Amino acid sequence: MHKLAGIELGGTKTVVVLGAPGRIDERLEFPTTDPAETLGRAVEAIEGWRDDKPVDAVGIASFGPIRVSREAADYGTMLDTPKLGWAGAEVRAKVAEALACPVALDTDVNGAAMAEHRFGAGQGCETMVYLTIGTGLGGGVLVGGVPAHGMLHPEIGHVRLRRAAADRFEGACAFHGDCIEGLLSGPALAARLGTHPSRVDPDNPLWEPVAHDLAELLAMLVLTVSPQRIVIGGGVAGRQPHLLPMAVARMPGLLGGYLRDCTRERLAGMVVPPLLGDDAGPMGALLLAAKAFEGHVVAA
């Protein structure tokens, strides 16, 4: 049996796992600090699981933006990111050099999308979107079950959308101010609400413009990607379960009757929480490891 390891490299925490597609046997979590310490701890954990033989391949599901094209000279290198100290970090190369095995890399949200598509809420879907709303806001897009790559990878968190008329919050993104990450991420909500979101009652009217912004994002994805499923994970979505039905209820009005199939009931079945919970990212990393191993065998 092949021995696979996965690294979910998040902006706040890193999860390292040993297992196989659909199965996690060992798991270690620790804070994401600087590149040397974080990647060093991940490599150390994987080396500690070697016992009788080394791992056959590693998959990395990383925050970004990060170079995901395998043909690029800087494949697996972090680009300009809000995470201090990480711009230019050679994420994939450092792990591959230390462990001397095939290493595949994609974004953390693409990894989570792959896992939900294979084992969770996206099963049977040709096209789906996985959103995570937490420290940041990211989106992975699968078309034909394959992550969408192009010049880079989707950066859904940094699109700008129509704001609610009376909303004057300037946004919290260091790059774009009121992009959707600057409006809906955990730090943005804390600034917007004036306190930690958990201290604001679900029926407080302060949530109204927040639900509007989430609905705008979801309506935009319906119109541009035409997904069969939008899976929403992350800490904010998990701890504020009232936000999802509030946003879905607003979507038909935003769509203005243009898509007759997009009834409130149909949308409620399209926009759903993840079935895999916090395991989506690590399981996606193991799927990437399996692909790295398969590609290595074919190449050999």
From TrEMBL:
Identify the InterPro entries for this entry: ATPase_NBD, Carb_Metab_Reg_Kinase/Isom, ROK, ROK_cs
Q: Which Gene3D superfamilies match?
A: 3.30.420.40
| Keywords recorded for this protein, A-Z | Kinase, Magnesium, Metal-binding, Transferase, Zinc
**Catalyses which reaction?**
D-fructose + ATP = D-fructose 6-phosphate + ADP + H(+)
Does this entry carry the keyword Metal-binding? yes
List, in alphabetical order, the Gene Ontology terms for molecular function in this entry.
fructokinase activity; metal ion binding
Q: Which cofactor does it need?
A: Mg(2+)
Q: What class of enzyme is it?
A: transferase
What EC number(s) are associated with this protein in UniProt? 2.7.1.4
UniProt xrefs under PANTHER family = FRUCTOKINASE, TRANSCRIPTIONAL REPRESSOR MPRA
Q: What's the protein here called?
A: fructokinase
Q: Which organism is it from?
A: Novosphingobium resinovorum
Its taxonomic placement starts with: Bacteria, Pseudomonadati, Pseudomonadota, Alphaproteobacteria, Sphingomonadales
